[in-house]
Write a structure and sequence with these properties.
The structure is a single chain. This protein has about 325 residues and is mostly helical. It has two domains: about 200 residues, Alpha-lytic protease prodomain-like; about 110 residues, Alpha-Beta Plaits (2-Layer Sandwich), CATH 3.30.70.1350. The chain contains eight helices and five strands. The strands form two sheets. A three-stranded mixed β-sheet has the order 1-2-3. Strands 4-5 form a two-stranded antiparallel ribbon. Strand 2, helix 8 and strand 3 form a beta-alpha-beta unit. Helix 2 packs antiparallel against helix 3 and helix 2 runs antiparallel to helix 5.
């Protein structure tokens, strides 16, 4: 956990340095594209700060006021960041359109811009790789988005660097405006994806189909130990996930054995899907009339039992 927070801190420092350098260089050059990239890096700085703070908050264990933990702090931070990205994209589009309508405005010191954007790309790529490694180890949505932002910024910095080199060779000032609009398009795409993913966590989106299949595979392994299961539900809360289901067991089964079975299933699912909390609600089988084909309980139409459960699954206490 400390390593994850430290890496998020490195991202904050990197984004701050890049944003400051690009904004100063863009202002000195009169380059809208470099200045726009500086705004992009500024948003990455905001993303890094939000990631750092939300990771710190979401890492806190469940308490009296937050029984399911603090995982949604990360989704909330991502949602705020998405809104700011879309607003910034609108501002940058304005810069780009004005540059196309007034292509005669000169861009000074393209060599400075090439140097700044080149250094930005060289610094951003390794830092984004560090963030990617931290995300794979922690499954933190904040670190995932922080990594994606920095990687996109590095790629756009490289493109702007090449575009400035082309402008230096050709003398076409309109290239700067086109590059500015390119940054805006990148931000729009980034903001939309960010908004879509963060909103899913806020509204308790379910686990993926592949993850649910793993849960069903685990349940199938214990198929001989219970009658059936139903009401399987799942939801995400930041990097944490919660799963609950109803497990139908033979009605004459002792509570201790049912508890052992539920514990075994919960531990098995959690080992296959780290970060998943499982809650199982056991309930007795309830035949409506006649004899239950699963556990052999006979029940009259009036609802009284006329027999006892004849099903004796081959429980192995060593499993539990």
């Amino acid at each position: 956990m400390d390593q994850k927070i430290n890496i998020a801190g490195i991202s904050v420092i990197t984004s701050a340095a890049l944003a400051l350098g690009k904004i100063v260089a863009g202002t000195a050059m009169g380059s809208a594209s470099v200045f726009a990239s500086g705004i992009h890096s500024g948003l990455d700085l905001l993303a890094s700060v939000l990631a750092y703070s939300s990771v710190s908050q979401s890492s806190k264990p469940a308490d009296e006021d937050h029984h399911y933990g603090h995982g949604k702090y990360e989704n909330l931070a991502a949602l705020i960041e998405a809104a700011l990205i879309l607003i910034a994209a609108g501002v940058i589009i304005n810069f780009g359109v004005r540059g196309i309508l007034s292509p005669g405005l000169a861009v000074l010191r393209t060599d400075l811009g090439i140097a700044v954007m080149g250094v930005s790309a060289l610094v951003s790529f390794p830092v984004s790789a560090m963030l990617a490694g931290a995300y794979r180890r922690s499954a933190s949505p904040a670190l995932r988005e922080d990594c994606r932002h920095l990687l996109v910024n590095a790629s756009s910095s490289l493109v702007i660097c090449l575009g400035l080199a082309a402008m230096r060779l050709t003398g076409l000032a309109v290239i700067d405006a086109v590059l500015t609009l390119l940054v805006a398009v990148v931000l729009l795409y980034e903001g939309y994806g960010h908004l879509k993913k963060s909103a899913g966590g806020i509204v308790d989106v379910k686990l993926s189909g592949a993850e649910e299949e793993i849960i069903k595979e685990v349940l199938a392994r214990y198929g001989e130990e219970y009658v059936q299961y139903h009401a399987l539900r799942s939801r995400r809360s930041g990097r944490d996930c919660h799963v609950d289901l109803h497990l139908v067991v033979p009605r004459d089964q002792v509570i201790a054995r049912t508890h052992q079975l539920c514990d075994a299933i919960e531990k098995d699912i959690s080992s296959r899907l780290p970060g998943v909390s499982v809650l199982i609600h056991p309930e007795p089988c309830r035949p409506i009339s006649g004899e239950c084909c699963t556990c052999g309980i006979e029940q009259s139409l009036q609802g009284g039992d006329s027999g006892v459960c004849s099903a004796k699954p081959p429980y192995d206490r060593q499993k539990f």
